[in-house]
# Entry
Amino acid sequence: MTAVYIGVTLVAWASAFVAIRIAVQDFSPGGFVLLRFLVCATLVSLAVVPRYGLRRFFQISRGDLARVVLMGISGAVLYNLLLAHGQKTVSAFGASLLINTVPIWTAILAGLALRERLDRLAWIGVFVGFVGALLVGSNDGGFTFGIGGALSILLAAGFQAIYFVTLRSVVGRVGAGRSTALTFLVAVLVSLPFAGSLAEELAAASLASTGAVIYIGLVPGAIGVWTWARAAERLPASRQVIFLYFVPPLAALMAWGVLGETPTLGIALGGAVTVAGVAIVNWPRGRQRRPERVVASAVSGSRLQDGLGTVEAGANRR
# Structure
């Protein structure tokens, strides 16, 4: 079943880049995020809450509640706000390539949160990966001054890395379904200030744009996030995140078929350089564990305090 969960997630998340390109034609990033998570939270809560009962559903420790709030803010709201903003100018394929820098962000997170020093080869991989991202951005939407285009999507990848690392420390105790539903509820609460703009945009939006947001909430959101969380119960985060390499080629095929977007040579070259950088970061070091594996093993038995500022590694480290 693990392969099924991973496969469903990859197809769902690849299609999200295509659907977002359609949705942002009529919706602002804020309105898009609120509508998406209203759909997600409703569907997943209806499926999960009856299994626990309303009272037990909300009975989690303060530490896990803090982690869920962090997941809702970073991996749900901020990730989607930045991604939707960036995809106003960046193609579906280009966006999927830039999001694929998540393993690099994870390695950096290991150095900052766990105070694990990156070795020379890992830093080379980080540099190569971001050179590739620069090539993608300069050929597709560009790196504009401020939070725009490709830079916005790169920052979204950083917030997604925080989500993945935090999820690993929560899902074993809280459960895949409950952690997903609680994350979505947090996302709805945080994005409520966008309710006014959403109401105006819904009144003027095309059926295609509205349908795209609902699809994103249902398939990449509710189904894709749930299947990813189920896979997280069975795989180390360092192994699980490698499967994200398959998202860009799937997104490229879907964007070509649905939107008629054809990747340019510059974007393809930048994507190849980015993947090379990620591969260098993940390159086996013999008996030395890679930074992102350290993140996966330590966080799986850790206590996260003040966000990801202090991490006490668990006893069962791989």
Q: What stands out?
A: The beta strands are 303-305, 310-312. The chain has a mean pLDDT of 79.
